[in-house]
Amino acid sequence: MTRLSLYAIFPTIFLLAGPVHAQGTEEKTIAVIAPKVPGGPNLAGPVNRFVVGGLKAELKVLPPKVVQKAAVKAKVRGKALATPPGAQKVGERAGATHVVLIEGVREVSPTGKKGKPVFSAAVSIIDVASGDVTFTATYALQGKALTKKIADMLVSEVLASLNAAAPAAAEPPAAPPAEPVA
Q: Structure pTM?
């Protein structure tokens, strides 16, 4: 065989076999959405810096620009983006398996005449295939800021939830034993 024919054969073998890591494993693709909710703090910057960076170490995370373009194509805007059905639409359009929805929430504590605003981050994980909310948690913010420490705690709980939700290799239910025919 000539050298030229060997160069043509080896790539063909690898194309037929497919990538080694894709055989038998399901990789989760995550879309992180941090919508601006009226009255709440804008968490888009800290979420992109701390949360997306932390999740990228363990999972495949879609870039924010891809998620933003998917939201435009799915025609999901404003308040609808902060709802599970809206986030599911965006996740489907972006090609994600799960959506992590992080909303800035403002509440008023009953202190004094007017009350003091307290800010928190409400986190939900939505399974795109079924539309179910598989995880919810609320994290208190320092003022209006999502700090690195809070983001690390958020990332660790989200990763634990996603790894726990990994479906075990489900076997089909066993067929009932057939009755003997007399």
A: 0.73
